[in-house]
Design brief:
DUF4157 domain-containing protein; signal
Length: about 200
């Protein structure tokens, strides 16, 4: 398997997308390749998906067990983000969620260490709480629901990232756009957050 950087989560994406640098527009060819990925990408996704689920399921379970429910204001964010069941969402400030995965093959492609937040199904792990970060992650929760659950979302995320080889995949573009409409990113916020991660 070729080594690629997958799942460039919000921390890395914020260096560009939320910091004001617009990613290049996706072409019709890009979208067609995502809709009908090459056989090699399909094989990589088939190999990585069970590993990803094994690594991520316990993290989601911990967040759901130990996390807090959304506040009334956050429930409003969730509804605007397209979340059908905001009452199921749990949020947890939990640094351990951002450690590298144990599986060596998955660790080559999944790098959560620089992320501001990570969403697994209805579980959202945050480094620090901020409305604009939570709004972005709630869009991902809505995507999970719309796509048919965690496995379907993870398959789509892996496929889009392997095909496009960029953080600016359709799932992230939607989360940036809708999240910023719900709770705009304050001027300079990403720079301050990035400095706290170093």
């Amino acid at each position: 398997m070729r080594i690629v950087v997958l799942l460039q989560t919000l921390g890395f994406a914020a260096l560009f997308g939320l910091a004001g640098c617009a990613p290049a527009a996706l072409t019709e060819g890009d979208l067609a390749a995502v809709a009908h990925p090459p056989a090699q990408v399909q094989a990589e996704v088939a190999q990585l998906l069970p590993v990803a689920m094994r690594e991520l399921d316990p993290i989601e379970a911990h967040i759901l067990a130990a996390g807090r429910p959304l506040t009334p204001v956050e429930m409003g964010f969730a509804r605007r983000a397209g979340v059908a069941h905001p009452e199921k969402v749990r949020v947890l400030a939990w640094p351990q969620a951002f450690r590298p995965p144990e599986d060596k093959a998955f660790a080559k492609v999944y790098h959560p260490q620089g992320a501001f937040a990570i969403t697994f199904g209805y579980g959202i792990a945050l480094r620090k709480e901020a409305p604009w970060v939570l709004a972005h992650e709630l869009v991902h929760v809505g995507q999970y629901e719309r796509l048919g659950g965690r496995e379907a979302f993870t398959r789509a995320y892996l496929t889009q990232t392997l095909v496009l080889k960029t953080y600016a995949i359709p799932l992230e573009r939607e989360a940036f756009k809708r999240g910023n409409q719900i709770s705009p990113v304050p001027q300079g916020a990403t720079r301050r957050w990035i400095e706290t991660l170093q």
